[in-house]
Amino acid sequence: MKKRGIILGLVFGMCVSAFADLRLHELFTDNMVLQRNRKVPVWGMADPGMEIAVEFAGQRKSAVAGSNGTWSVLLDPMAVSLTPQTLTVSSPASGCSLQVSNVLVGDVWLCGGQSNMDHPFSSYSLLKDSVKTIDCPAIRLLALAHESGKRRDQPLFDASFTKGWQECRGPALSAFSPVGYYFGNVIHTELNVPVGLVESAWGGTRIEPWMTLDPEGGSGRLYNAMIHPLKDFAFKGVIWYQGESNAREPVEYAGLFADMIRQWRAAFGQPDMPFYFVQLAPFKTLDWNKEGAAWAWLRESQVQALKLPNTGMAVITDLGEFNDIHPQSKQPVGERLARFVLKSEGRDIETDGPVFGKMDIQKQRCVLQFSHTGKGLLTKRVVMNKNPKFPVGEDAEAFVAEADVLRGFSICGEDQQFVPARARITGADRVEVWHPDVECPVAVRYGWDNFPLCNLFNSEGLPASPFRTDTFPPPEFDGALTGSPFAGDVSGFGTPAEFQAAPDESTMELRETDGRPAHWFGPAEKSGSVMAYWRGTDNSLRDGKTPEQVMTVVYFDQGKGRVELLYDSSDKTFRKTANLPPGVWKAGGTFKLTNTGTWRAAEFRLNDAMFSGRCNGQDFRFESASGFILSGVYLRSAK
């Protein structure tokens, strides 16, 4: 602290004592936005006992730094101000003074999630040039750096930002979230208020690390580093786009997501904090997803969060791309999220697409009733590209649902075997569904697929969310393995693979466990992930010479969760659009941790093993949201 105080004295030339220390939290920089119509905390650090004065918009508030050096004041609620003002923080006794200039008063929103919120304009080929025409100084942008925190088990006081607050234009916008910008632009344009957007998102992340106690073990690393430092700031609400990385456990996501919303509201001290989120877009049938509908079940879990007050869900079943998990159509996503804000401000608009209400079975036909239909149900032409980086409709292989036929429904009888159904709109709020071969229907589903092609809308142009009328139990989505008991004999397992250390992506400790030497894998300090890399040692099983192989993994069944296998495949079409060689990394399945406290062996059968070390010499890896314990991995020919 003493060194920082010297720097402040040199920069501002206003500290009587060269050793006085006074600073604001990193959230407070030039160009920021403060929240309107709410008490606004301003806080920072100073020498213990130092008297602090904060002045802004005619207000003067005072505080005394506590024994730990922290201080805080509350500004009285303020009206909207598009006129730039200066926030001054000073210590009269020491002569130290800080100023934050070009400050507006409006609405501040936290933008969270994974890559579809995190990826910036510059990463989208069809969006990056649009930044050149955008110049909106009343929208201000602030992005947190990716930081899981070296002290993973401790919430952090300070946050790490790529830069301070910036006006919305040029390079600042190019590096920012399109969903966040388009959301904020509607609010600013329609309500004539300044908008502050704070992006705290990280591509590829599961929901658990964003929670205050990661259910997979330990405290939430991303929460500690990228949410907790923001908890005292005055936000209007949260927008959230995440779920892709939790698709292997889609049913469990419902409880996790609801818990996370409650936790964030508690942390921010706002029990009814607005929380608006995006339902997952259509995406292809994944190689690991045996049922082809894991994302449909996760979408259902997202719907469950609407039971919480002051929540809203933007449905985007018309905005996906078959081969791109990051669809380019981001403007409608932000605009649909913004509708919830406009509604809360008194605008007479519809926020939701058609919502299924009840079903009546009339002989061979099912009659479904909907709410949120506006002036009535209708069909629209839906076009979603198969190949990436094409404008919508310009991909010759695009998937199309024409407006003259209602698409996306399936039906089943007592056998619970769903088949594509015929459907038609029979009233302003009714749809009739049937199939000539299903004489006694019992259930209907809509959009129940990873990549649904469906086209039921309301008169406001908002799509219906996927739904099901049944309560059938969910399937096992990825054929996850529960290993068989392991007695200690590895003689029939094949050749041992070699562990390849990757300190940036996992920590590893050799430790005997229940009588066996073991590799203990834990989260990396930097990324917070757990990825254990391995390489085959038998040359006859490498370089594609033996594509059909059996892999046996000996693991200690401790904790709960799943560990996923990803491997180097000869599949030339797999991930052809990624910045990796085709087939790296292809999902090969998972094994479950059920906390039996015993050694077990899980067996994977691969028919397209390449194992040519195409990723830094490594052939396959195991990945999990939490730590796991392996004794060894063995490979042998399946023939």
* Terminal-residue CA separation: 67 Å
Radius of gyration: 27 Å
CATH domain fold name of the largest domain: Rossmann fold
Could you estimate the helical fraction of the residues in percent?
10-25%
Tertiary shape: globular
- At the first level of CATH, the class of the largest domain is Alpha Beta
User: Can you name the CATH architecture of the largest domain?
Assistant: 3-Layer(aba) Sandwich
Low-confidence stretches: 1-19
Helix segment tally: 8
Q: How big a fraction of the residues is strand? A: 25-35%
CATH superfamily of the largest domain: SGNH hydrolase
**What is the count of distinct domains?**
4
Question: Residue-averaged pLDDT, rounded?
Answer: 91
Query: Biggest β-sheet, characterized?
Result: 11 strands, mixed
> Which structural category fits the helices and strands?
mainly beta
Task: State the total count of DSSP E strands.
Answer: 38
